[in-house]
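Lab meeting prep.
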Amino acid sequence: MSHFEAYVCKVNNLDFVKKALTEMGYGHKANTTITDYYNGKVKVDLAVVGADGRLLPVGFRYKDKEASNELECQADWYKVPFGEKEFTNRVAQLHDKYTVVQMCEENRWNINDEDITLNESGELEILATNWS
């Protein structure tokens, strides 16, 4: 019996997921296998590493390797120190932040670190400026 559950996240860029994990205080390890409580194993494209350096039973892999456009989160949620919704929502939020920042930079909009804030509702607000 395995405790692994697949959860489709609204993320598609592993580099942005890496940045999100780093911002959340976690590390990551590419192309590895994670293990659940019952010693079930799943190959993932990116695994989450805890602050203590241990590999957590949470990882991301492409649903369709050919298309490489949608990542799913594989995890044994019983074995991690955080909740599924809280974790996946925060990863998705930070992934979107890095997507917006990249798009702005590509279109010559400037964003300073202090221009990215979290409002009372927990939503990210990004102020971008452009000089004509």
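Slide two material, second protein:
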Amino acid sequence: MNFIDQRWLAYLAHFHADRDYYACHDYLEEWWFELGNPQNHLLMAFIQLAVALYHYRADNINGARILLDKATLIFEMNKDLITDYGLDEEALFTKLNELKSNVKHHRPFVDVNLKFSDQLLEKHLHEFCLNQDLDLYASSDMNNLHLIHKHKFKHR
């Protein structure tokens, strides 16, 4: 990955540190809009993955299932580009299949970590988290209702 967009780093930081999947959505949506919001762009798959995890953690199984299916389809359409975002393509699809199985069988939510193929990106992520005082690879705070149900508090 030659150029690392700060919104991508913010997405990855919130995805892997404070597990604020709602914020993940916001960071990539802004970037996606700048690209003209193409429906099958890889950024849309990452947005849908974050929102699926948001729903899954909040026990909205149907919402999680629908978004995981949509995200998987877009990831498949763009699989040649996944490594351009610094991620391991094979590990991503393995994780998606595991998530879909967990949702289908109503297994308890477990945090997701994506596997990096780009060591420099991972180094930048560590630095970004350090600068933001975020604990990389922390577990979701399941007692933080503001995090779990953030959409209910967003515009209040």
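Talking points for slide two:
The longest helix spans residues 61-77.
The mean pLDDT is 93.
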